[in-house]
Amino acid sequence: MGVLSNLEPKEVFEQFEALSMVPRRTYRDEKISDYCAEFAKRHGLEYVQEESGNVIIYKPGTAGYEDSEPVILQGHMDMVASKTLDSDHDFDTEPLELFVEDGYIGAKNTTLGGDDGIALAYAMAVLASDDIPHPPIEAVFTVDEEIGMGGAHALDTSLLRGKKLFNIDGEEDGILTVGCAGGTVCTVVIPVSRRHRNGIKVTVTSRGYVGGHSGNDIQKQRGNAIKDMGRLLHSLSKKIDFSLLSVNGGNAANVICQYCTAEVVMSADRADNFIERLNDLVCTLKNEYGDSEPGLSITAEAGEVDDYSVFNWESTVNTIWYLYGALDGVQAMDRHVEGAVESSLNTGIIVTEEAFCKVTYQARSSVASKLEEMLQRLGLWSEIVGGRLEVESSYPAWPYKPESELRPLMVEVHKELFGDEPRIEVMHAGLEGGILMGKNPDLDIVTFGPEMLNVHTPGERLNIESTARNWEFIKEVLRRLK
Questions:
Q1: 108 three-class SS
Q2: Which of the listed residues 20, 108, 119, 276 has the most CB atoms within 10 Å of its CB?
Q3: What is the pLDDT at residue 1?
Q4: What is the helix, strand, coil percentage profile of the chain, to 5?
């Protein structure tokens, strides 16, 4: 018996639990891609498995729907692989450990992969069914969405005949998303010169931040562990002479950073003063956050006195100045959609190597010129400290489509099924719709999905009741598309 075997709708949760047994972190999609191909074979369905790993599965329309226009059901295979600091879970080899609690599904000490395993579960439930009326189905499962949306970039849209596309990658029930911001993943590379220094090593560790999705949650003013580390080090450097040894934190460009560790070296007689001043600064920081960061913990631990290969004075100053001063968070609110974010920047990852310190960002904007302007400002900051900006990937915005046929139908069905009108939104987070629309402007795309909480974090949860509501919604919209 599976953990989800008693939940309804059984046909959806059966698929979701099976998917949760298959490792599928971003850039390691091989197993889940093969699983999807094998699913098609088991059900006697035609499919294409692209070189990129994308899988398209075709199912004919049911009786009376054979000649209807195909409908595309689309979601991404990969998931953000985030876990608690005390977890030893191996995302490359181990299944997720699911549990049910208070009406939600979660995974023990890890992300759940509801983003976007639920899309695959819905689509597979339709593909496996023999009692759901529907037009011909083209189920599109893409790889590597979470970092750069590589699967959508690689997808051969000439393999698709349908124009109406359900992108089941939403996270709030009752919301239909019909556009999204464009975005860029980029890295600032700060050169590091080292010297030998004899002294005591002090390790500063910040953890327990709420974190969240840098598109959906950036406006909530949640703490960023990398930025706070920069602030703490900058303040301490005014009073105490120390050298950086390393700064590391974060696990994804599009996740608001939840943890960061800095190693510094100083004279042994300065360590107690350093830790005392740090604790005072942490009290100030916690006071500013109030109840919004309940799990926040920042500690310092003195280690051994030894000879260390540390950043030289200039590299220490440049790195701390950069971390403290560079852009982060919401840069502008939308001037046309009340309450929506127009432009933002998230400091997602910092990694220290022997000769470089690398800081990776997710930049987003619904205005192309504002996205470019943010990158120029980041580039200017990097030049000030002798570094450089490297753009790794970009994706276009998905513009609102006034003449949509799919959107008004889905609004009508939602009102009839649930008695209320769904909210229509343009999303700040990047969605594959932007890339797919760029490949085929004739597509009519709507993004939706069940309620999920704390995506991209070990606190990710999938609402069971909301999953059932959206299943009824999907089936009824398919029935109307005859």
A1: coil
A2: 119
A3: 64
A4: 30, 30, 35
